[in-house]
Structures are given as C-alpha cells and as structure tokens.
Amino acid sequence: MKRLLTISFLCLSILSYSQTPVIDSLLAQLSSTEDPYQKALLNLYLSQEYESINLETGKDFAIKALYEKNDSVMAEACNQLGRIFFFTAQLDSARFYFERAKEYLRKMDNEASIAAVNISLGAVELRQGDYNQTIKTLTESLAYFEEKKDELNAAKCYSNISAAFAEMHNYPKAIEYNEKALEIFNQKELVQFQLITLPNLAAQHFGNGDTLKAIQYNLEAEKLALTMNNKRSLSIIYNNLGSAYLDTNEDKAREYLEKAIALKNELNLKNGIEVAQGNLGYLHLKNKEFKEALSYYQLVEKQVKGEQLVYAYEQIQKCYKGLKKYELALAYSEKARQLNDSLLDAENQKVFSEIQTRYETEKKGKEILELQSKNLEVDNKRIRNQNLLLIVLGILVLSTILSYYFFKRNGRRQKQMRNKLLQQLKEQELKGIDAIVEAQEKERQRMANDLHDNLGSRIATLKLLIEDVQQKTKEEQDTHFEKLSQITEETYQEVRKIAHSNQSGALISSGLIPSMKVIAEQVSGTHGLKVEVININVKQRVKNNIEIQVFRILQELLANIIKHAQASEVTIQFSEDNNELNLMVEDNGKGFDTKTPNFGFGLTNIEHRIENLNGNLVVDSSPGYGTTIIITIPL
Questions:
Q1: DSSP type of residue 491
Q2: CA distances from 253 to 261, 518, 619 (A)
Q3: How far is CA 80 from the centre of its chain?
Q4: Which has the closest alpha carbon to 318: 303, 296, 341?
Q5: How confident is the model over 92-149, as pLDDT tens digits?
Q6: If you ran DSSP here, which 8-state letter would residue 543 be given?
Q7: Which of 49, 90, 451, 570 could be disulfide-bonded to 85 (CB atoms 3.0-4.6 Å)?
Q8: How does pLDDT run across 235-280, given as a tens digit for each residue?
Q9: What is the CA radius of gyration of the chain?
Q10: What is the three-class DSSP state of 298?
Q11: Predicted confidence (pLDDT) at residue 345 exceeds the cutoff of 70
C-alpha cells in the first residue's frame, strides 16, 4: 500500500460556469442564418462555450459543426469532439477524433496546430496506458515546439513524457524530463504548474529509491500549496510525505497521514484516502497494535479492488492472527487465495487473447503483402507486353528508343517496389519474432506468479491450520486434519500442473533427437523397458513446429507401449531421404490385430497429428509378434 500519489498533468482543463450572454448571442445568430458554413462555425463556438457548462450539450453542438466542405472547420470540430470525449472518459472516441483532426490539418500543412493536437492526443494515450505511443506522439510535438522556441508547450510535452516513463518504471528518464519542465515553469513563475510538477517529481524520486529527494520536493510543494490555500493538493502532498517517512520516522508519518485523511474528508475526496488508511494500518501492525491496524484495513477493504483487495485481505489475516482469532485469520487467508486465483485466471486469459490477436494481425498483414507482390508481378507482365506491342507497331528507331526508355523506367520502378515489399516482409517477420519473445516473457512472468501466489497462499494456509490445530478439541482436530489433507493434495496437484505445463518446452529446446534420447534414458530407468534411439543420417535441425509435433507423437507412442505392449525393448530410428524425415518405432511386445475396429492402442490421435503435418503412417503388427510403426513427414 505504501506509494506516492501523483497529480495528473494532461494539458487539458475544464471549468464550470453558468450560461453566459455570449451563448445567448450565438444562439440568436444561429436561429437567424441559413448559410451552412456560418451554421457550422456558430455550432463550433457554442460547443466551445458549453464545454465548461454542460459537456453533453457541447457534444451535440460539436457534432452539428462537422462541415465536410471546409477542412479548417472540420479540423476544429474534430478537435473539439476529442476534448469532450476525453473529459467524459470515452478515450477511444477521443483518440479517433484527435487523429481525424490531424488528418485535416495535414491537408492544410498546419504544423503548429498538429503539434498542439498531439499534446491532447498524448494525454489520451497516456490515460489509456499506451506509454510507448505517448512518448512517440509527444516527442513529435516537442521537436516542433523546441524549434519554434515555444517553451511553455515544450514544458507540457516534457511533463507528459515524464509521466509515461514513470508509468513504465523508467524513473531516471521520468526525472530527467520533469526537471526540464520544472525549470521552465519556475522561469515563467507558473505557480499552478509548479504545484503539479513538484509532487510528480517527488513520486518519481521515491520510485527511484531516493526518499530524501522525494521528501524535499514534497516540502517545496507544501509551501506553494499553503501559499495558494490549495487544500486538494495539500491532501496529496501530506499523503506522500506520510508514505516517505513510513520507515524512517513513524511520528512524522502518522502526523502527515492523519492530516491527509482530515483534508480528504473535509473536501469529500475519495481518491487516495485508502493509501493513507492502509499506511496507518501498516504502522499499527508494525507495532503489534492489531486492533487499531484492523480498523484501518477494514476501511481499506471497502474501497479497493483487484490486487489491492488481495493485499487488504492478507493484512486483515495478519491482524486476526495477532489477535489469536485463527478462524477469522484462516477465512481471510482463503479469501485472499481465491481472489488472487481469479485475478490470475483473468490475467492469463487476457495474455492468451493478446497473443492470439497479435498473431492473427501479423498473419493477415503478411498475406496482404504477399498478395500485393503477386499483383505487382501481374502488372509488370502486362506493362512488358504493352511495351513489346509498341516495338512491333512502331518505326524501328522509334521503337528502339521507346523500348529502352520504358524498360529503364520500369526496371527502376520494379526494383524500388520489390525492395519496398521485401523490407515490409522483413518488418512483418521482425514483428512476429517480437510477438513470440513477448509471449515467452509473459509466460515466464505467469510461471513466477503461479509459484509465488498460488503455492505461496496455499502453504500460508497450511501454516495457519497447523498453528491452529493445537487450540482445538479432538473432534475439531479431526476436521482440521481433513482440511490439511485436502489443501496438501491441492498444493501437490498445483506443483504437478506447473511442472507439466513447462516440461515439454524445456526438453524440445535442445532439438528433437537429443530430447528423445533424454526421454529414452528416463523411461529405461523407471519402467523396466530398454529404449534405444538411433540417428542414421539426420544432420539438419528440424523446423521447430515439426519438432514439437513429432516429439508429441513419439511421447504418445512410448506411453502406449508402456501401458499396453508388455514389451522389454523399443528401438526408435531417425533417417532423412529426399527432404523427408523417416521415423521407425519397433517393439518386441505382444502386438495386436490391425483389422480390429479400435485399430490398436489409441493411434487415432497420432494419425490426426501426422495428417496435420501432411505425413504418412504405416502400422505393421500381429498378435505375439510385436509392432513396427513407420512415419514419413516432409521437411
């Protein structure tokens, strides 16, 4: 729960006023004109006026201002709609209209307005969590503002770029950009912007591990906020100071946290109050004041969701354990485990969905490029035929000149277009590789979470049950032992599940034949079955997708032999001929009749795998004479 809050700086502002005489005048003009262009302008002005009064009415006027026959009006109307959708937290719509505004401004070659719209667009992307795109968008604007010596807009870009780097936990970069912004705000004596930037710098230094600088910047912000009597900013600053002093000066931490809660209650501000309450709970729990800590964590429990709620459950469990209320401690431990499991499931589904979407997008992009390449070849043939026809019909000298001219021009054009398509195909391949690497990183992260969260929570529950069993009667102990047995079994199954989900990928990474030799050694050592793997002439590494499928096929064949064949020896041979991989699996078991309806011991699944690889399967077996299976797969 210990963290520093930031004051968002998104370069968009909105104030509240009542309807003005300006609005009355604009409405009167609108009712008396029939000119479409004038109507569009008046609707735009009304939308801008209503932005600070009634956003829904402002949106209606902005939509009416969309006048397709004038690029300037369209650009302003789209920008206005983007602002309104941003204020109403409809971020996808805001992003759409800001991008559309930029399209019209590009037609007019209006760089200054594009740079200004980019600040708003960057704010949307920042709110959406698209941090890399935020940095890209704002850097584009920053280059323009720095060239034009527009320091204020440059500082706004610095501030939002800093926020994006902070969200990515790149605190040194965040600090670098925010200090540039603060320098400009100080020079121009823009106190309101200083009051926004100082707490953000404090939070970034705190995230970077520099508590002293975090305190220093918060104290500077406190002076400004007191001067301006800005209680909202003070509530955030006091919260931050309480967090910063949490492990170094408990008295100061408690003083600042209580001030923060008092101000937030006075202003009826809900955001961030749970941080102060959680930190006060942490101080009491640290001093074994379990009852007081419990009261704060129960307040936190009512206000948070997701991972923060898991944390609250865990802290409440510690409080009940300290109060020797083991039943309640166990109940909250179970709540934490169940919620954490559901969050992990949801995150895993999200990761799988992202990987699938990215894969489909990359695949579709590659197919489009390949189709364009084929169309280009057809166009080139058509142009070549036209040139040849001109040669036949024209005068010899003229035909020679024209032939030389067209062939030269088309040769350069074809070469350029081929190079462009090849470059695009390479970029698609690189994106595909990036997607695979990202998927691998997410899988590693998922494994770490499984080990830490799933097994950790179950083992913690086991520990609580063991500690609590001594407090129970004999009958209650029997119930506890049953629960102990159940959770122990669940823990064992969880370990098996995690191990199984990663075993195959780890084995196959060394190559198909080396991996099968490892499997052969394992089987030979544990099942009383001698397995021999022979590589006759396979020298090249098989493609990864084929390796995995063949590895699965051989695993299933070995499993079937172990379960059903009653064999003592198995030989697996690999050979390569005419760009085909040949596999032969022989055992000296009891064999079976290949004409039976069930067709041996579970070969249906293996047949499907081989069909997917465009391969061929031959099974030779009879009762009492073992089995020979020959598989041919094109490479």
A1: H
A2: 12, 58, 76
A3: 30
A4: 296
A5: 999 999 999 999 999 998 988 999 899 899 889 888 888 899 999 999 889 999 999 9
A6: P
A7: 90
A8: 989 999 998 898 889 999 999 999 999 998 988 877 789 989 999 9
A9: 35
A10: helix
A11: yes
Q: Which among 209, 210, 213 is positioned nearest to 182, based on CA atoms? A: 213
Question: What pLDDT, on the 0 to 100 scale, is given for residue 378?
Answer: 58
pLDDT at 283 over 90: yes
Q: Is the pLDDT of residue 564 over 50?
A: yes
Give the type of residue at 236: I
> What does the alpha-carbon distance between residue 87 and residue 89 come to, in Å, rounded to a whole number?
5
Give the integer Cα–Cα distance in Å for 148 and 74.
26
Closest residue by Cα to residue 506 from 538, 551, 452: 551
Straight-line distance from the first to the last Cα atom of the chain, in angstroms, rounded to the nearest whole number: 55
CA dihedral 469, 472, 475, 481 (to 10 degrees): -10
Say if residues 4 and 207 touch (Cβ distance below 8 Å). yes
Instruction: Answer yes or no: is pLDDT of 632 > 90.
Output: yes
Residue position matching structure tokens 């080990």: 451
Kindly indicate the confidence band of residue 360, based on its pLDDT and cuts at 50, 70 and 90. Answer: low
Please tell me the distance from the alpha carbon of residue 17 to that of residue 47, in angstroms, as a whole number.
14
Q: Please tell me the distance from the alpha carbon of residue 98 to that of residue 396, in angstroms, as a whole number.
A: 59
Is residue 309 within 8 A of residue 339, CB to CB? The reply is yes
Q: Is the pTM of this model over 0.90?
A: no
pLDDT at 372 over 60: no
* Residue spans per domain, the chain: 345-501, 509-634
User: In the beta sheet, which residues pair with residue 572?
Assistant: 533, 585
**At residue 365, does pLDDT exceed 60?**
no
Q: Domain 509-634 is of which CATH architecture?
A: 2-Layer Sandwich (3.30)
**HSE-CB of 459 using CA atoms within 13 angstroms:** 10
Q: Is the dihedral angle over the CA atoms 447, 449, 454, 457 positive or is it negative?
A: positive
Which among 104, 115, 106 has a CA at the least distance from the CA of 137?
115
The C-alpha atoms of residue 461 and residue 459 are separated, in whole angstroms, by: 5
Q: Is the dihedral of CA 295, 298, 302, 305 positive or negative?
A: positive
CA atoms of 381 and 60, how far apart (whole Å):
54
359 pLDDT higher than 70 = no
